[in-house]
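fold-stage: in
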Amino acid sequence: MSPPVPSVTILNTRIHDLGMDEVLERAAAMMSQPAPRHIITANVDQLMANMRDDSLRAIYRNAVLVMADGVPLLWAARFLGRPLSERINGTDLTDRICSMAAREGYPVFLLGGPEGIAAQAAAVLGKRHPGLRVAGTYFPEFGFEKDDSENQRICSLLREKRPAILFTALGFPKGIHWIERHGGACAVPLAIEVGASFSFISGHLKRAPRWMQKRGLEWLWRLMLEPRRLWKRYLVRDMPFFYYLLRQKLSGRLE
């Protein structure tokens, strides 16, 4: 049995403390295990949603790994006196897992994203990692998660294609819920919701400059790229995070 993974709890969500290489090592081990596993890359917006939603908190508790995707969570962990080793960004994790998959022969499947973007991202990943086996891509129509026949069709497709790794870009919280509800029926060993990663990998969206990423300003870059879609998330919904973090610090609660 593997030793427990060190972690810190931030606003009722457990965040695991592993570096990228350790995450990849554990992901590789999951490929040989029949039970479906779920890795989550968490950010401030997700932690705020978890505070309001019991069903989401349960999904995060059930995930095999919950990693910090965002410098503000690294700051929060340090503020609480439990610093984390590394940021595990969803786009970087997708790329590194595909590199591993190309070496080891694990097929991958890309589900979701804006129409056509999954196929474009798969093409980029295939060129970047020669030998990568892309089992398929699929773009479901808006509202598909409420259509039982469409969900059954996707699960059947995944069982037919038999990927070892499923990347979904369905958005939060839709992707997290979809994996929880249908991951078992898909029979995929490892599933990861990767947000806008297909758009970044394909070049449809440009990632923030490295200096902004290191300084925790990636949110500002995203806000400049998509102000109408993201202003409420960053400037309204997520602002109370800092108040709740201070309250947690004063309470001394870390587990």
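fold-stage: in (second)
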Amino acid sequence: MYARVITFQAQAGKLEEAIAIYRDSIMPVTRQQKGFKNATLLTDISTGKGVSITQWETEADQKASETNGYLQQVLGKIGVTFAGPPIKEGFAVSVQV
């Protein structure tokens, strides 16, 4: 399994909006992506920092979601709440309990 981790800083007062967009607009589209397994959004209300972790069945599925327009679409939706560009990283899932 593979994971994409996107770290972002929300604009002041925009973290709740980012959470709502992630939950209500991004997750329905994400669930339809080939190889999607699960997603977690971590947030720190006091700092406005957020971390999105999505897991994918294969590395090819993860990479396809970056090149088929999906990732650009969802970042366009939620990016209006960001204070700066997000940081995107990919990882192999080595242990999951």
